[in-house]
Automatic annotation (TrEMBL):
<dbReference type="GO" id="GO:0015288">
    <property type="term" value="F:porin activity"/>
</dbReference>
<dbReference type="GO" id="GO:0015562">
    <property type="term" value="F:efflux transmembrane transporter activity"/>
</dbReference>
<protein>
    <recommendedName>
        <fullName>TolC family protein</fullName>
    </recommendedName>
</protein>
<dbReference type="Pfam" id="PF02321">
    <property type="entry name" value="OEP"/>
</dbReference>
<dbReference type="GO" id="GO:0009279">
    <property type="term" value="C:cell outer membrane"/>
</dbReference>
<dbReference type="GO" id="GO:1990281">
    <property type="term" value="C:efflux pump complex"/>
</dbReference>
<keyword id="KW-1134">Transmembrane beta strand</keyword>
<keyword id="KW-0472">Membrane</keyword>
<keyword id="KW-0732">Signal</keyword>
<keyword id="KW-0998">Cell outer membrane</keyword>
<feature type="signal peptide">
    <location>
        <begin position="1"/>
        <end position="20"/>
    </location>
</feature>
<keyword id="KW-0812">Transmembrane</keyword>
<comment type="similarity">
    <text>Belongs to the outer membrane factor (OMF) (TC 1.B.17) family.</text>
</comment>
<keyword id="KW-0813">Transport</keyword>
<dbReference type="InterPro" id="IPR051906">
    <property type="entry name" value="TolC-like"/>
</dbReference>
<dbReference type="InterPro" id="IPR003423">
    <property type="entry name" value="OMP_efflux"/>
</dbReference>
Length: 490
């Protein structure tokens, strides 16, 4: 198997005047994680997730606010009804400013709000040249919904799940970056292998054609065989041009994805001219992955597993909301404090009077023509649908992991077998080439040996690509590193 990797490495030098930069798969993945647009977008989404959760937590802490109208000036004419019923328009010119300082605290279990406040109001009558103060030196109050849906109680259950889901989604997004980079890496690697095969075939066919010309003069080869070799030379030229174009496109895609920079010159512009020379990731991990362990880790780590719980809670929340919003709704508002008024500011604070208020507002639907029941029944059906969908998604979730574990083990065996087949194909072609030079092999048999040699080389490279794609797909599906036996963290 090592001989296969050595042979592949020998084929991966790029033709050109600009020196190539050799890169390994790990180096490409590190670049993708550090500077690709996909990775940056994932990190930005994570910051959004963090600040959204901090905003949620802040709702349950005391809120201090200052509000008011300062100034609040009016000069106009207003309608005034006289004692005899007539209307007169009287001029007014006043300023009615107010400031209110309040400290409030939500009560999550009940959905209510308790608050403490201080308030000061000043009224200036510019026509009569008078002023008057009114204020609340101290006040405490409570606003409590009764028989209503309490969103805060559900948010305390759902928002932490959303936060955890977002954290795991960051890891999944970065693992997806690794998987995408791996795919592009092997797209370029396969195209480079095909390019080297095309270059080798062109040189070999040209050499064999020249030998055939000499053999034709000696009468050891027919004109038909010579024409077949000439056609092989032309086909090799065509395959070489196509392979160069494919390799250039694959290189551009990989460089663009990982944000490849010219570290010696321009660090801000993607360098599309300097070629990349990719190495074969020949250290295949000797993994024995237990399916149950993989499913267990995926359930503990994946955002989708957290989403299963969240989706069920959201369905329960929507059902409770439908029930309570279509029944008796009431709000109790009560307060106690001190208040006073006077022509001077200090009058507000001298022997203030008690300030008390209490009110109960309610709404009771009496006739809805079945609308309330329809809303509740719809929420029930949606909850049942959510439960069924989650159960199906769990089965798909586990089946996907089981399939990937099985595939990984099979592909490792494929890498070993195709490497052996590649070595056999190279040896057989060398023997066929020597036999043709000695006039002991027909052109047709030589062509067959060439095709089998090329197919074996491509199959070996594609098997390696499939293995690493499966390897990083399993990491993505479980968010677990089975090489080091630890959870993946960033």
């Amino acid at each position: 198997m090592n001989r296969f990797f050595i042979l592949i490495l020998g084929l991966l030098s790029l033709v050109g005047q600009v020196s190539a930069q050799t890169m390994t798969l790990n180096e490409v993945l590190q670049l993708a994680q550090a500077q690709s647009v996909s990775a940056k977008r994932a990190n930005t989404q994570q910051r959004t997730n963090i600040w959204a959760f901090r905003s949620f937590l802040a709702q349950y802490k005391p809120q201090l606010s200052l509000d008011g109208s300062l100034p609040n000036f009016t000069r106009s004419y207003i309608q005034v009804t006289q004692p005899d019923g007539n209307i007169q328009f009287e001029p007014v010119s006043y300023n009615n400013s107010i400031l209110n300082l309040s400290l409030s605290q939500t009560i999550a279990p009940t959905g209510g709000t308790i608050f403490v406040q201080k308030q000061l109001q000043r009224f200036d009558n510019f026509i009569q040249n008078t002023k008057l103060y009114n204020g609340i030196p101290f006040g405490i109050g409570l606003s409590q919904p009764l028989f209503q849906f309490n969103p805060m109680r559900w948010d305390r259950k759902i928002q932490p799940l959303l936060f955890s889901e977002g954290n795991q989604q960051l890891i999944e997004s970065l693992e997806q970056v690794s998987l995408n980079a791996t795919n592009l890496y092997f797209d370029l690697l396969v195209s480079q292998v095909n390019l080297q095969i095309a270059e080798t075939n062109r040189v070999n066919n040209d050499t064999l054609y020249r030998i055939a010309l000499h053999k034709l003069d000696l009468g050891k080869i027919s004109q038909n065989d010579l024409l077949q070799l000439q056609l092989s030379v032309l086909n090799a030229e065509k395959d070489l041009a196509s392979a160069r174009q494919t390799a250039a496109v694959a290189s551009l895609k990989l460089k663009t994805f990982i944000g490849y920079r010219n570290e010696e010159n321009d660090r801000s512009v993607i360098n599309q001219t300097r070629p990349l020379e990719l190495t074969i990731p020949n250290q295949i991990p000797d993994l024995t992955v237990d399916v149950n362990r993989a499913i267990s880790e995926a359930t503990a780590n994946r955002a989708a597993a957290i989403a299963f719980k969240r989706r069920l809670l959201e369905a329960e929340r929507d059902l409770e909301k439908a029930r309570k919003n279509n029944g008796l709704n009431a709000t109790l508002t009560a307060g106690y404090g001190l208040s006073n008024q006077g022509p001077n500011l200090l009058d507000v604070y001298v022997r203030p009077q008690n300030r008390e208020y209490v009110s109960l507002q309610f709404t009771l639907p009496i006739m809805t023509w079945g609308r309330a029941q329809a809303i509740v029944e719809t929420a029930k059906a949606n909850r049942e649908l959510a439960q069924q969908t989650v159960e199906q998604d769990k089965l798909t979730f586990e089946q996907e992991i089981f399939t990937q574990v099985t595939l990984l083990q099979m592909l490792r065996q494929q890498v070993v077998l195709t490497a052996k087949a590649d070595q056999i194909g190279q040896n057989r072609y060398q023997i066929a080439q020597d036999r043709f030079k000695l006039s002991d092999l027909s052109v047709t048999d030589l062509g067959i040996a060439t095709q089998e040699k090329d197919r074996a080389r491509r199959d070996a490279t594609l098997a390696l690509r499939d293995y690493w794609q499966a390897f990083y797909t399993l990491r993505l599906l479980t968010l677990y590193d089975f090489e080091t036996n630890q959870k993946i963290k960033y």
